[in-house]
Design a protein that fits this description.
Elements (H helix, E strand, L loop, with lengths): L10 H18 L5 E13 L3 E3 L9 E3 L4 E12 L2 E10 L2 E6 L3 E3 L4 H8 L7 E3 L19 E6 L7 H15 L5 E3 L4 E3 L18 E6 L5 H21 L15 E3 H8 L8 H12 L5 H14 L2
Parallel strand pairs: 8-11, 9-12, 9-13, 10-12
Antiparallel strand pairs: 1-4, 1-7, 2-3, 4-5, 5-6, 10-11
Helix pairs in contact: 4-7
Length: 307
């Protein structure tokens, strides 16, 4: 009777397969998981000798010298194994390349943003004092995640984060109004769970956006530091939820809104903040202007830097 020849187990072959599979996973991982992408028109400078690539998932094929001015065309928020990084598509030496966004120094045309950039883009840590009386309702989105952020100012003079928070708590039973966070020059105070909707911008916006309030500031430095904290907080919310950085507007698809834009394009409210607060403070304290486009440029700097 002829014996059946048994196949021998070859551990070396299996090991090679594992190496090949692992290399393919590492090589293609970033390309396979683009979390968000959006076009921009920005200028930046390389802060050090920077690795660039012909594609957005393998960086390091070429080098850009420190101090080179480049144009940014698009951003990619990439995710893999629970981690994120932001990759910028740039024009460099007549071609299109990709570079880690955190290695770039964005150009800040606005005088206030430039002041913040010279300070090294500082920000306070987010602290929590969650009040349990505020209602808990899921966002009305498919996965109960927010679509973006709404910016408010309090509209009152000579108040603080603490006094505004205390006022909101005292009046909540009658007004039903609350936001997620108050932001000042020295504090980012989260008072309501950001995983649930707030009640500060009307029925067309409340079910979809994280909302924060800014008490008024009266010195150039404090106003700038409040904007820095607000930009960091906005960037943190967007990055935590895998969202692009785009302004709200007529197409209703942006991720960063002012209360004024909500009134204009979403409805259900008639407030115009923080337009007057930003414009008046920028003029009086820095002899310049400030609007949502300036704020988004500042948010982008923090968005790029978050690890």
């Amino acid at each position: 009777m002829e014996k059946i020849k048994q196949r021998r187990f070859r551990p070396g072959f299996v090991f090679i397969l594992i190496i090949v599979f692992g290399a393919a996973l590492i090589y293609g991982g970033w390309r396979l998981n683009i979390v968000a992408t959006y076009p921009v028109k920005q200028t930046a400078m390389t802060t050090r000798q920077t690795r660039v690539s012909a594609n957005h998932f393998m960086l390091g094929q070429r080098q850009a010298k420190a101090g080179q001015t480049i144009r940014i065309k698009r951003y990619y928020l990439m995710g893999r194994f629970g981690k994120q990084r932001v990759v910028a598509q740039v024009e460099l030496r007549g071609g299109h390349y990709y570079v880690l966004a955190k290695t770039l120094q964005l150009g800040q045309a606005n005088r206030i943003n430039a002041y913040i950039a010279r300070q090294g883009y500082p920000h306070q840590a987010i602290t929590k004092d969650i009040d349990p009386q505020f209602s808990r309702q899921h966002y009305q989105t498919l996965w109960h995640h927010p679509r973006g952020v709404i910016v408010h100012d309090t509209g009152t003079e000579n108040t603080t984060v603490a006094s505004e928070y205390n006022y909101m708590k005292r009046n909540y039973a009658n007004s039903g109004v609350f936001v997620h966070t108050f932001i000042g020059a020295r504090q980012i105070l989260n008072i309501a769970n950001v995983h649930d909707m707030a009640q500060g911008a009307g029925p067309a916006a409340n079910p979809y956006y994280v909302q924060f309030e800014m008490p008024h500031q009266y010195t150039a430095h404090s106003f700038a530091m409040q904007l820095a904290n607000a930009a960091y907080y906005t960037a943190r919310i967007l990055r935590d939820n895998g969202l692009a950085l785009t302004p709200g507007g007529a197409n209703r698809s942006g991720t960063v809104w002012t209360h004024a834009l909500v009134s204009t394009y979403l409805g259900g409210t008639d407030h115009r903040d923080p337009n007057a607060y930003w414009q008046t403070s920028a003029d009086q304290l820095f002899a310049t202007t400030y609007d949502l486009n300036d704020f988004i440029q500042l948010v982008q700097a923090y968005y790029n830097r978050i690890d």
